[in-house]
Amino acid sequence: MESKIGKLIKALRTGRQKTLKQISEKTELSISFLSQVERGKSSITLESLKKISEALEVSPSYFFSENSVHVKSNVRRGSQKQTKKNDFSFVFEDLSGNLANPSMEPILVTLQPHEDKGVPFAHKGQEFVYVLEGVLTLLLGHEEHELHPGDSIHMESSTPHNWLNRTGKPVRFLCVNAFDKE
User: Fold this and answer.
1) Three-state SS for 73?
2) Three-state SS for 89?
3) Considering just the CA atoms, what is the radius of gyration of the chain in Å?
4) In what order do the strands lie in the sheet with 104-111?
5) Were both Cys, which of 40, 83, 150, 155 would link to 2 (CB 3.0–4.6 Å)?
6) Could you give the CA distance from residue 112 to residue 70 in angstroms, rounded to a whole number?
7) 67-75: long-range contacts (C-beta < 8 A, 24 or more apart)?
8) Nearest to residue 140, comparing CAs of 122, 125, 160, 121?
């Protein structure tokens, strides 16, 4: 069964007349992995989705919007929660709404206890992380930062980075990605 994200990736890729090989070369993800994601045979991590988004020249939030209507502003009420867990092993809530051509993407992330998001990854733009609860370990290049509630970091996303939860309690944090508009 194809996942919603996989279907969207395939539709966007084919609509832009891109081959799996071209996306593979831009993302450094294997053709077989990309094919499996498109067919719903493999789950996808946020770092892989960011790479695919860059290759297809869309914001990662493109894959989470409930409809294609784009507006100029968005007020989001707490009662409008759209929590997702579909294709990822962590829980996130897209806070962005449906702005046309967004320059940033805010998401609320919950990492489960002892969760490791794989190898560090890099992408275009900047990233801002603000810890709400728990202790987040952030790997940034050769540095390791332990962030507690109220701590934040603003960084260039081109530096390889990764989020980890090395504790026995969930970690919740706000992550805002700002994209370069080249």
Assistant:
1) coil
2) coil
3) 16
4) 83-84, 91-94, 104-111, 171-178, 126-133, 152-156
5) 40
6) 32
7) 67/98, 68/98, 69/98, 70/98, 70/99, 70/100, 70/101, 71/97, 71/98, 71/99, 71/100, 72/99, 72/100, 73/99, 74/98, 74/99
8) 160
Position 68 pLDDT exceeds 60? no
pTM attached to this predicted model: 0.61
Distance, CA of 28 to CA of 24 (rounded, Å) = 5
How far apart CA 54 and CA 2 sit, in angstroms, is 22
Long-range contacts formed by 25-29: CB under 8 A, 24+ apart: 26/51, 26/54, 26/55, 27/51, 27/52, 27/54, 27/55
Average pLDDT over residues 53-74: 61
b (16+ CB within 10 A) / e for 100-121: eebebbbbbbbbeeebebeeeb
Model confidence pLDDT, tens digit, residues 91-102: 777 777 666 566
Name residue, tokens 């989470």.
64
Q: Indicate the DSSP class of residue 112.
A: P
DSSP letter at 66?
A: S
Q: Name which of 68, 103, 108, 95 is nearest 177 in CA terms.
A: 103
Q: Residue with structure tokens 């081959």?
A: 19
DSSP, collapsed to helix, strand or coil, labels residue 41 as: coil
